Amino acid sequence: xxxxxxxxxxxxxxxxxxxxxxxxxxxxxxxxxxxxxxxxxxxxxxxxxxxxxxxxxxxxxxxxxxxxxxxxxxxxxxxxxxxx
Length: 84
Prior knowledge:
Layout: H1 20-26, E1 33-39, E2 42-48, H2 51-58, H3 62-82
Antiparallel strand pairs: 1-2
């Protein structure tokens, strides 16, 4: 389901204030990271969660997330070594 958007204004320093309802809904606070994803139709703003936030959100499954992230890191390091 697509909800109606909220409006933010770009300042003279290229900063945008994210509307409070959106900040609360997605748990965004000072220091939160977001990713700007470009598509043909425009831009998506995607909240990025830390591994700790993902782990706590997953409850008991958090250990699986940590193990999966560790495996991915190992794979990426091995691939980087092969490409040197």
